[in-house]
Amino acid sequence: MNQFGWFFLVFFWSVLIVVTAMSYKILLSEPHIPMEPFEEEEENIKYEE
Amino acid sequence: MEASLPGLVDTVTEKNINHGFGFIWNPDFSKIGRFSIWLAAAGQIFFTLSLGMGAIACYASYVKKDDDIVAAGITTSMTNETCEVVLGGSIAIPLAVSFFGLSAAKAIAEGGGFSLAFISMPAVFSRMPMGQFFSFAWFGLLFFAGITSSLAMGQVVVAFLEEMGGLSRKMAVIVAMGTVFVLSQFAIFGKGALVEMDYLAGTFGLCLFALFEIIIWVHFFGPVKGWEELNRGSKIKLPKFILGIMAVVSPLYLLVVFGGWMIQDGKAVLLMEGVAEDEIGPRWIARIVMVVMFILIGIIASNKKNEELDNTNLQHKEAV
Predict the structure, then answer these.
(1) Is A11 near chain B, with CB under 8 Å?
(2) Model-level pTM?
(3) Less Cβ crowding at N or C end of chain B, within 10 Å?
């Protein structure tokens, strides 16, 4: 593998691993959204319209 | 070759691994001016993130009004890319190069993902200790990857037939799955038909429909309204230039890639230059079948639209 290959490998692996870890940290810090019954879902759609 | 651990270690030497990683990571700058590469890369991104096809519409329908789609979107795309680039990219192609050597692996990779999954990996497993177990795990996971994506894509077709075609759910499922069964026969028995369908739907079609989606989003939904929807309930505040990328750069980029591809490769692909003689017939049949399917979908959708317009006019007349 040449030096460009190593550069791309290290760069992409680092970005992907760091951003994935950060996004999980943010996503998991949010409160769990409970499942709602279908009636409320329909109301939600009506509200959207 | 006898499946044994020393045999495996002999094959997967540091030098071979280095060649394998080099094969996937060493950039070939001479190819950067080829629009077919850019089209293939864009197609791969859209395919892997389920953009430009029905699956994303299915997933989006489960999102509630104030759900954080920025965090969920970044997490999903990054997890997917990490698994593919860091894990997947470190296994399939480098292993194929390690086992078969550079030239044979190149030939396999040129055959596309199907050759890699169904030719190179079984050959690798046959030379590994506990190869049967790993082979079972590989194809088992591949099956689950396929069936879960098929559910998301199938749901959109079923919903379309129900809502636009006026069919019952049961009938819509029978029609959708029956069509998939019949069309898959072309892919199985027509030499080259699968490659043609994969290219038309999985590369060209995805980029084309992604372009349509972006244009519809910009002109009918509106970037400002879209930006509000995107940021509502989101913990991560996106920088404003992302809006410019979405509304201006993305459609322009896709238009340039399409235009460049048409000039460089459009004629050769359309006339199937360089395609083996025995593949031309099945490939044309695959093309015609896909175009007919596309026209049929258009007819069903336009009939429904006309019906709705007639109903609206009728209600209007009654009110008058």
Answers:
(1) no
(2) 0.77
(3) C
